[in-house]
Amino acid sequence: MAKLIKLHPLDNVLIVVEEIASAERLLINDSIVYVPDAIAIGHKVAEVFIEAGEKIIKYGVSIGSATTKIATGMHVHLHNMKSDYIPTYTLEKAFRETND
Question: Whole-prediction pTM value?
């Protein structure tokens, strides 16, 4: 798990500390996990399967909620999570416009 670090024991995401290439396989919790997309340093990867609506935990606290099911090893970002604290509709709208 050298490309990923866990910041707090309660976290359900890992932080990328070395860029991940698309189609790379990483060891997460003693399992080899396929990572389909390239992921940049500083971004989050699901350490475990996260259900839609489940809290995203980073630094031991909730930073938002999953908007869809997120498999282990998947990138966790605006396309599959939302803040529970500040409106992100402008970011979500911008993301949809650039990815549609």
Answer: 0.82
d(CA 35, CA 20): 8
Tell me the two tokens of residue 32: 């080899």
Q: What's the residue count for the chain?
A: 100
pLDDT in tens, 53-92: 999 999 999 999 999 999 999 999 989 999 887 765 556 6
- Helix (H) and strand (E) counts in the chain: 1, 9
- CA angle (31, 64, 1) in 5-degree steps: 25
Q: Classify strands 13-16 and 44-46 as parallel, antiparallel or unpaired.
A: antiparallel
Whether residue 3 contacts residue 39, with contact meaning beta carbons closer than 8 Å, is answered with: no
Q: Which residues pair with 57 in a beta bridge?
A: 62
